[in-house]
Design brief:
The protein is 37% helix and 24% strand. The chain is an alpha/beta fold. The radius of gyration is 21 Å and the shape is globular. The two termini are 31 Å apart. About 3% of the residues have low confidence. It binds adenosine-5'-triphosphate (ATP) and magnesium ion (MG). Adenosine-5'-triphosphate binds next to helix 4, strand 14, strand 16 and helix 12. Adenosine-5'-triphosphate (ATP) binds next to helix 4, strand 14, strand 16 and helix 12.
Length: 357
């Protein structure tokens, strides 16, 4: 009977992530006591609506099997337990895998990923860049890469090296219109190839640019490998919005530690000067970092140079090293490094719950 209960609970989807609660590891146990069925869920910090929804859905699912008295108990997930576990899976010879995530599209994830990679590299780190935004890969354009990678005799993929950074992009390998219709298993396969079938070499940091929001790529990444953590990119206008909360809730659900927040498009650099004007209320990124008990890694100002450099294929950190924006990327890199060191000392990784690699 236990199995049947578990099976019907597979039909219950976590409403934000649209994945079933079993796959997300939210089911702790089911207790059967005559007609009383107790469903115990371990949840990240979700809002009241989500809790009520999950409670109703679990009850309804169990009631399909009979006239039971269903009691759903919810406990907040204890995040300390997984933070200290040993790394179960990583990518060979890669010390830190860092995911770049955001709640919404267009906040500057890819811009941050490329410039942060270069800034980290300028500070002596060996960095690789994985563009995992299978729905809209933009890093090849931003890095000015037009060739496609080759396979070696062992059928391993050789990243393209540009500005000293080995790079693999989903744009090199998949046709865009096909990727749009892919579902979980196909995405899972491609993500595991990016991690396991690429000759990344020895890296201090592998930066992974993800698609916006919460979906299959994020889930596959969490299930394929242990990552050191994620950097959450937001803009001042978005810090208070539901998308950011959803992205944070996704990280908690997938047990991915948060390394820090980057507030992008934070103030406007007056052209030809070193002056920054704040058009929107400032301080949101810091508040968000405080709320999530993490660090604000940097505030990156809005500067038209970023866009121009991106189009030209030479990231601003290289093209305009003396600019304010480049300074802000360098300080993001310094702060990220100190977080990575701290997390490594504390043994913090994401814990892979369901990996097949
Ligand atoms: N600080 C900035 N100043 C000026 N322009 C910026 C800044 N950050 C990003 N941009 C521009 O905003 C646009 C969106 O940035 P980007 O592509 O990095 O966002 P994204 O979050 O990766 O988007 P998507 O969700 O579509 O992948 C780009 O044209 C980029 O050049
Ligand atoms: Mg992008």
């Amino acid at each position: 009977m236990q199995n049947e209960f578990t099976q019907v609970l597979e039909t219950v989807l976590e409403p934000n992530l649209k994945q079933d609660i079993i796959k997300l590891g939210m089911l702790d146990k089911i207790e059967v006591d005559g007609q009383i069925i107790r469903v115990h869920l371990n949840l990240p910090h979700v809002d009241e609506n989500t809790r009520t929804y999950l409670k109703d859905q679990c009850s309804q699912a169990i009631l399909q099997l009979g006239d039971f008295d269903v009691r759903v108990k919810m406990r907040p997930r204890d995040t300390r337990a997984w933070q200290n576990q040993k790394v179960p899976f990583g990518v060979q010879n890669v010390r830190h895998i860092v995911l770049v995530v955001s709640g919404k599209g267009g906040v500057g994830k890819s811009t941050v990923s490329t410039n942060l990679a270069l800034a980290l590299s300028q500070q002596g780190q060996k960095v690789g860049l994985l563009d995992c935004d299978i729905y809209g890969p933009s890093i090849p354009t931003m890095m000015g890469v037009h060739e496609t990678p080759k396979l070696n005799e062992d059928q391993k993929l050789l990243p393209i090296e540009k500005f000293g950074i080995p790079l693999i992009s989903s744009g090199f390998l998949i046709e865009q219109d096909k990727a749009l219709i892919w579902r979980g298993p196909m995405i899972h396969k491609i993500v595991s190839q990016f991690l396991g079938d690429v000759l990344w070499g020895d890296l201090d940091i592998l930066l992974v640019d993800l698609p916006p929001g919460t979906g299959d790529v994020q889930l596959s990444m969490a299930q394929n490998t242990s990552v050191r953590g994620a950097v959450l990119v937001t803009t001042p206008q978005q810090v208070a919005l539901a998308d950011v909360k959803r992205a944070h809730s996704m990280l908690e659900t997938l047990k991915i530690p948060l390394l820090g927040v980057i507030e992008n498009m934070s103030g406007f650099v007056v052209p030809g000067s070193n002056e920054i004007i704040n058009m929107f209320s400032s301080g949101g990124g810091q508040k968000l970092a405080d709320l999530y008990h993490t660090k604000l890694l940097a505030q990156i100002p809005l500067d038209p140079k970023i866009c121009a450099c991106g189009d030209e294929g030479i990231p601003v950190v290289l093209k305009e090293p003396a600019s304010l924006v480049s300074d802000s990327f360098l300080s993001a890199a310094r702060n990220l490094c100190s977080q990575l060191d701290q997390f490594e000392r504390d043994g913090i990784y994401s814990n892979v719950t369901e990996t097949k690699r």
